[in-house]
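Chain A, query sequence.
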Amino acid sequence: MLEGKIRESISKSNAKALRNDGYLIANIYGKGLDNVHCAFKINDFIRTLKSKTTLVFPVKVDGKSFDVVIQEYQKDPVFGTILHVDLMVAQKGVEAKYKIPVKTKGVALGLKNKGVLLVSKKRIRVKAKPENLPNAYELDVSALDVGHSILVRDLPQTEGVKIIDNDSVAVVGVIKAK
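Chain A, predicted structure.
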């Protein structure tokens, strides 16, 4: 389980000092809960993210345990390091908005016909209870030719999960290379 510590001060200088010590600044929030300003060791956080198998994962801050989902994160534009992360508490039985990652599998047919695979939406916005959440939307792109795409309405429907994104938005497509 990922363990963090409470931030005593939420000032800019405190955040900078924590980042210099190898910490990642984070906020944990949820419906009806007080915000928790905390920090995690950045290497432990990345290791936890790479090893997790579900969208929801546990963290422990100040002796309290939370089941959380990553809602938003900020990266340094030059170095690509993670600067800040927002974690939302996934409360059992409470419906909330989440972002589900999109994963592609297979090699698109259009790549052999001088096309380029373009993933337009890396995450799909849904509204659901945490126990109904899919871990990811896996899309088979092997049948896509140049000019073809998979739209939001073509995604597999899951019981208890409502997709918020517009139906006519392309998720993955193959475009002609210039």
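The mean pLDDT is 89. The helical segments are 12-20, 42-51.
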